[in-house]
Amino acid sequence: MIEQIYNFFTIEMLYYWVNFGVLPFWLILIFFPQSQLCRYFVTSIFPIFVLSATYTFVLYKSYLNSYDFMGNFNLYFGINEISNLFSDKNFLMMFWIHFITINLFTGGWIVKDAQKFAINKIILIIPLLVTYLIGPLGLFLYWLIRIFYAKNISLYD
Q1: What is the pLDDT of residues 14-47, one digit of tens each?
Q2: How many domains does the chain have?
Q3: What is the radius of gyration, based on Cα positions, of the chain?
Q4: pLDDT over 70, % of the chain
Q5: Residues in contact with 142: Cβ distance below 8 Å, sequence separation at least 6, in sequence order
Q6: Residue 156: which pLDDT band, with cuts at 50, 70 and 90?
Q7: In the predicted model, is pLDDT for residue 144 greater than 70?
Q8: CB within 10 Å: which end of the chain, N or C, has fewer?
């Protein structure tokens, strides 16, 4: 049975599961940011734990396929090296899980921080959608909104 599960979760299948699996978290963040479901299910450690387990599984599969982990450090040698790394599906999947996890964490932080300043949840829809799609730009949009509500600019808050 474990072998069947292992064989079912190919890199392509994991890609679909990760992409569709984070959608409920984002929908809860966008439409129900002040609910208990959001507090205990989305902005907690739960989604990070699930995505970390998936990341570990990809690492394990990569290890079994004799992936060159030391080659990952080549990404610091130039843009061409990053391009070479992205040609490997295992590395690409590790990167994608990393990206999805950081964006979800950032979306959860935006919701929690917005609650401190009583920012209207309707206004949060745009920065949350942009964070889902283009992480850093969504965070920047939220920061602009936050300045208006906090009535000050704080670079280290």
Answers
A1: 899 999 999 999 999 999 999 998 998 888 899 9
A2: 1
A3: 18
A4: 92
A5: 110, 113, 114, 124, 127, 131
A6: low
A7: yes
A8: N
Residue 107 corresponds to which tokens in the numbers above? 């979306």
Cβ–Cβ < 8 Å for 61, 90? yes
| Spatial separation of the C-alpha atoms in residues 44 and 38, rounded to whole Å | 8
Rounded-to-integer distance, Cα 92 and Cα 72, Å = 11
Domain annotation covers residue 93: yes
| CA-to-CA separations, 72 to 11, 88, 137, in angstroms, rounded | 18, 11, 26
Residue 155 lies inside a defined structural domain of this protein: no
Q: Classify residue 136: in a domain, yes or no.
A: yes
Q: Are 94 and 68 in contact (CB under 8 A)?
A: no
Q: Which two tokens stand for residue 156?
A: 């280290």
* Residue 7: both structure tokens together: 């064989």
Please check whether residue 111 is in contact with residue 33, taking contact to mean a CB–CB distance below 8 angstroms.
yes
Q: Provide the domain limits for residue 116.
A: 2-150
Average pLDDT over residues 104-133: 93
